[in-house]
Structures are given as C-alpha cells and as structure tokens.
Amino acid sequence: MNATERSEAILVSCEALVVGRAGRALLPPLDLTIRRGELWGVLGRNGAGKTTWARTLLGLERAVAGRVTIPPGVRRTYLAQQRELDAAYPLRVRDVVGFGLERGTSFLRRRGLEHRERLERALEEAGVGALADRPFRELSEGQKQRVLLARVHAAQADLAVLDEPTSAMDATVEREAWALLARLRRELGLALVVITHAHALVRAHADRVLVLDAQSVVSGTPEAVLAARSPFDAPAPEESHGV
Amino acid sequence: MESDSRPDSAHAELDAFDRILDEAEGHGSPSAPRASEERAPSTHEREHEHEHEHTHAHESTPSLSDFVERLELYRDPIACGVLAGLGLAGLGVFVVLRRAVFVTAALTQAAGLGVALAFYAAIHRGLEIPPVLGALVASITVAVLALGTEARLLSREARVGIAFVMTSALAVLVGTRIAQEAHDVSAILFGSAVLVRPGDLVNVAAGTALSLGLLALLHRPLAFTGFDPEGARVHALPVRALEIAFWAVVALEVSVATRALGALPVFAFSVLPAAAGLAVSSGIVGALSVSMLIGGLSPALGYVGAYLGELPVGATQAAVVAVSTLTVLGVARARRRR
C-alpha cells in the first residue's frame, strides 16, 4: 500500500484528544489513528473513561480539548451497553436487526428486496435466524448481544464502536462472537473498536490495543502492550501519553 | 357587562355553543347541559344540574331503537369521538413508550387555556383569533417548553408538572372572564362530547389523518430513536427533527380533540389503549393495531352507553376505554400464566 492509499484508509484521527465530563478531563491527551479493517481492543478498569472516550469519538459527547476527525462519508455504527437500550419497546429480533439498515432519512424510502436480503443474511451470519420473530425483550442477555452483533453486520458500516458487546455471553458463545467480528472485518473491511475486559480474546484477534486509565493511555500492538505486563501496569514511556 | 364589546365572531362562537347545547337538550342527548341556566355554574351546581337532568330529561327510559332512530343527530359526535380515539390511541403508543403520559394531560389543559385566551382576546381586546388556533399555539408552546429544552435545573417531569398546574389554573381564571353569559366554562374551553360544533369534526378528521400519516411513515424511526437514541444518532437519523415532528402532531391532535370532546376522554384515549396494546403485542405494529382498535371502538360504545344510561358522554367514553383496557390486560395476564 502506498502513502496515498494508507492516507485514504484512515477512518478516524484523534489529535491531542482530551475526553471528560462537564469540562473535566478524565484521561490524558491522546493521538490516535484508526484505519479501515483494523480491530482495536480498548481495555481499562471500570470507570476509567472507556465509554466516554468512545462516545466522544462518535460525536455523542463534546471533547474537553483536541479534536476528532472522521472523513465525510464514513458510515458509523454504535452498540451501547445493553442497559442503555429501552427494554419497554415491543420489538421483534428482525426489527432490532433492521435498525442497522436505517441511515439518515432512509426510512422515507420503500424497503426492497436488497433490504430483506441484507437483513436475512445478517440474521443467519450472526446465528440468530431462528430467533428472527421472537420478541427481543424476552431473550436472554447473551442472545440479545448476538442479535445486536447481527445489527452491526446489517449496518455494513465502515467503523463500528462496540461497548462491551460480549459481556453477557458464556465463553463458547463469546469466542464465536469474536470470530464473527473478525470475519466482518475481513469481509467488509470494517474497522472495529471493541471495549471489553476479555484480554485473551483481544490478544487473539485485535490488531491494536488501547489501554486507558486516569494516569496514562497506552496504545500499540497486543504483543507490545499486553505481552510484557498486565494492561494496568505503568506503561512503557515510548507508548504512553502521560498526564 | 362585557358582552357589548364582543366582536361578532366571539358572539357567534358562544351563541353557536349555546344553540348546540339547546339542541342537545331538545333531542334528549345524553347528559347535555341545560340551556336554561345562563351563568357559569359552580361544580356543585353543575353536578346538581346533571342529577336533575337525569331525572327529567327523558320522559321514558331511552332504548337502543330510540338511539338508532335519532342516529343522524348523533352521527357527527360519534364520528368525532371515533376519529379522535383512533389518532390519539395511535400516537399514545409512542407517548407511553417515551414515558411522557403526563405530557398529554398538560397539553389538554394548555389547549383549554389557548381557547380561553382566544375568547379573551376577542371579547376584551377586539383581536380575532380562532379558538382552535389558540388551542394549537398554547399546546405547542407547552410541548416545546416541557420537552424541547435541555434545562439541567429541572427534570422533564417537573417541567411538565409546572406546565400542567399553570395552564389548568390559568384556563379557569381566564375562563371566568369570558363565560359570564355561557352555560359552562369547562364545556366551552374543553368541549362536551355531547354534540360537536360545526368545524370540530373537520378539524379532528384532519388531525387524525395527519397523526395516522405520521405513524405510517415514521413508526420505524420513532421506534429506533426511542429504543436506542444514541445508536440512531450515530446512524445519522434526524433524531431531534423526529421528536419535534412527533410532539407537534401530538399537540395538534390533542388540541383539536380536546376542543371537540373534552379533556378527560382525550387523556383517556391517549394513554389507556396504548397501555393495552403494548401489554399484549410483541411488535410495534401489533401494539398500534390493538391500541387503535380500542381507541376507535370505545368512543362509539361510550356514546351509546351514555345515551342508554343517561350518563355524561365524556366520562362514559373514558370509563369504556378503561374497562376495555383492563379486560385486555386481564386476558393477557391469564394467557401468560397458562
């Protein structure tokens, strides 16, 4: 890949990005570039600011300082933690997965054969085809997460940010889910940012790792960041962005 | 006396209301306020009137065949109730899902205040404002103030509560300044459901057509933005515009329906059928269908029930909605236990 192609493949650039709440910084400034097809694992203790960072990346929260640049036309999708979803809504599984196909004012257009095919394919690929007509709110937590991964598949986005998408799954299903994510990355060129506590799966699947805590942020390859130490140890100086 | 300074339209509007009530009494309509009492009566006086009326309004016990004979007379108010029930019950599904039930109550009071202000402006200031426009402007203002701002000082519930109390009190206070010659300030501000004014049916039909059009076109994005608002924002759905469009249509439908039928049935149609629809359906379209079925049938059944039982129409319609809702919820519960 030449320099131009590499530059075109950049989906997100963070420059001296400081995230926080009510104007108060939660993390040190961060420079970061996410490219097409990369899988990023985002690790850190509870309350470290992982979700705030992800929401700022997507423009759902305002940065305290610095900036995030996403080129026009980059299609994004986001899976919030399940508790952010309103369980009162009477939705079938196919409705929830179908939301992945909605973008902008697409709801004003008539849904054709392509829409139905994408929906069915996403249901099957995520292994939830048999649940398609079940009420979403009656599924187990693990099943719901699989349905939401089907929604990511249906979205056919360029960038997907997933906040603890496998936290309620048992070990076997979690491995299958990560395999699905890896396949999406490979087949669709999707860049994935996955907030998780599953260190072993990050080590196995991720291209890059970002470790967040209040004192420092560390990024690099899984080997470099995870192999030598626990992700919560003090970072090596060349990889870190200190306070 | 203020009435000498009334513009013709305000006179005409109040006179038309009087005629409708007179007509209702003359035909033995269910629970029509009596035309012989001219001053705005107190609640106690009105209750006494109704008791008196129930004893004497019908010389013999009303029957279904009497009702069918006079169906022409009741056709418009029944149609108005059915249309309002359909529109409000459909919108109500998303009102209930957005946990904004009390907003509808505040909007009905705001509509009454808007009508009172329109009459007040005509009588005391010589400004010609159609009452339904006053109702609409007041409802949309309350909807924007209660839902549209991101004030951190007060929660949405607190803002809606303040709006409800203020609009209720102001509607009564302003209403006493316009109703010295009218039968019942409450019926003028909020409608009576007994007989509808000319134009009410058209307004309600237009409001319902708009409501059903909005639901047909936007039920999927409204579900997405309610279920996962942040996911919808990331997918570039116009979340704010959808909310504004939805609440504007709710304000419109509540305004015209309140003006025609009264606050109680409008609140009942907006909340109860939706609760039943959501309890028994596993999809949005199913919930909308069940809700609109209950919302569409109950006003007609309520009207017939009020005629046969010589009961107040609005309250009977609200009671029929409540009974239908409880029945559906009971059936749903029994099915789940099995």
List the helices and strands and how they pair.
The complex is a heterodimer of chains A (243) and B (338).
Chain A: H1 3-8, E1 10-18, E2 20-21, E3 24-25, E4 30-35, E5 39-44, H2 50-57, E6 65-69, E7 76-79, H3 93-99, H4 113-125, H5 141-155, E8 159-163, H6 171-188, E9 191-195, H7 199-205, E10 208-212, E11 216-220, H8 222-227, E12 240-242
Chain B: H1 8-26, H2 43-56, H3 64-69, H4 71-97, H5 101-125, H6 131-148, H7 156-175, H8 185-190, H9 200-227, H10 229-234, H11 239-261, H12 263-280, H13 284-309, H14 313-337
Helix pairs in contact in B: 4-9, 4-11, 4-12, 4-13, 5-6, 5-7, 5-11, 5-12, 6-7, 6-11, 9-11, 11-12, 12-13, 12-14, 13-14
Number of domains of chain B: 1
Measured as a percent range, the helix fraction of chain A is 25-40%
Low-confidence segments of chain B: 1-7, 24-28, 32-58
Query: What percent of the residues of chain B sit in helical stretches (DSSP H or I)?
Result: over 70%
Largest interface: A-B, 32 and 26 residues
Whole-number total of structural domains of chain A = 2
Major sheet details of chain B: none
| Separation of the first and last Cα atoms of chain A | 35 Å
Helix and strand run of chain A: HEEEEEHEEHHHEHEHEEHE
From the helix content, strand content and strand pairing of chain B, which structural class follows?
A: mainly alpha
Low-confidence stretches of chain A: 234-240
